[in-house]
C-alpha cells in the first residue's frame, strides 16, 4: 500500500508533518511518501488569475500525487481556528481541477498543536467537509500538547493514549487493504 502523507502547513519543521509521517510508520506493510507543501509554490488563488493561467503546474502535481496514492494521511495545522493559508491556497487551486481533491482515497485526518486544543477546530472543519471533497475518511485523531507527547529523538509519539488512538487510525487504513 502506497501512503501519501503531508502536514497541511508549509513550515519546514512542521509538527503536523512529523505526526503524519510517524502515523504512516504504524501502518503495516506500507510504503510512504512525505510531501512538503513548501515545494508547491503558487500565487494566491483568484478566479481572475485562473482565467489567465488555468491550472498551475504545482496544483496539477499535487493533485496527481494524490491520484497515484493508495491511501492518504493528512495532518492539519491550525491557524486562527482554521486551515493554514498555504494549505487552503493549494487546496483551492487543486479543487478547480476537480472538487473531489481526495479522489475517493481511504484517508486518515490528523491534527496537532502545541496547546491543549490539539488543533481540534480545523480538524472538525476538515471532517465535516471530507465527503464533499472525495475523502473516504477512515479515522480522525487530534493530538494535544504535541511537544509533551512527541519524542523528538526517536520521532515517535511516546504518550500511551495518543499512541493508542494513532494505532487505531493506522489499523483502519491497513484493514482497508485486506477488505
Ligand atoms: C498565525 C497563527 C495562528 C495560530 N492559531 C492557532 C490556533 O488557532 N490554534 C492552535 O492550536 N494553534 C495555533 N497556532 C499555533 C500552531 O498550532 C503552531 O504554530 C503549530 O506548530 C502549527 O503546526 P505546524 O508546525 O504543522 O505548522 C497558530 C500559529 C500561527 C502562526
UniProtKB/TrEMBL annotation:
Gene3D superfamilies in UniProt: 3.40.50.360
EC assignment: 1.-.-.-
Record carries keyword Phosphoprotein: no
Gene Ontology CC terms, in alphabetical order: cytosol
Keywords of this entry: Oxidoreductase
Domain NADPH-dependent FMN reductase-like: 1-135
GO MF term set: FMN binding; oxidoreductase activity
tRNA processing as UniProt keyword: no
Protein name, as recorded: NAD(P)H-dependent FMN reductase
Species classification: Bacteria, Pseudomonadati, Pseudomonadota, Alphaproteobacteria, Rhodobacterales
Amino acid at each position: 500500500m502506497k501512503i501519501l502523507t503531508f502536514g497541511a502547513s508549509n513550515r519546514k519543521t512542521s509538527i503536523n508533518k512529523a505526526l503524519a509521517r510517524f502515523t504512516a510508520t504504524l501502518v503495516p506493510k506500507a510504503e510512504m511518501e512525505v510531501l512538503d507543501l513548501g515545494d508547491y509554490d503558487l500565487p494566491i488563488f483568484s478566479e481572475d488569475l485562473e482565467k489567465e493561467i488555468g491550472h498551475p503546474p504545482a496544483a496539477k502535481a499535487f493533485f496527481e500525487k494524490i491520484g497515484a496514492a493508495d491511501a492518504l494521511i493528512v495532518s492539519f495545522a491550525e491557524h486562527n481556528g482554521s486551515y493554514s493559508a498555504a494549505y487552503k491556497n493549494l487546496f483551492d487551486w487543486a479543487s478547480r481541477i476537480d472538487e473531489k481533491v481526495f479522489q475517493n482515497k481511504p484517508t486518515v485526518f490528523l491534527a496537532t498543536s502545541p496547546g491543549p486544543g490539539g488543533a481540534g477546530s480545523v480538524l472538525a472543519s476538515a471532517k465535516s467537509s471530507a465527503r464533499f471533497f472525495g475523502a473516504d475518511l477512515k479515522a480522525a485523531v487530534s493530538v494535544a500538547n504535541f511537544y509533551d507527547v512527541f519524542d523528538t529523538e526517536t520521532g515517535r509519539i511516546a504518550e500511551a493514549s495518543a499512541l493508542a488512538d494513532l494505532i487505531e487510525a493506522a489499523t483502519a487504513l491497513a484493514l482497508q487493504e485486506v477488505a
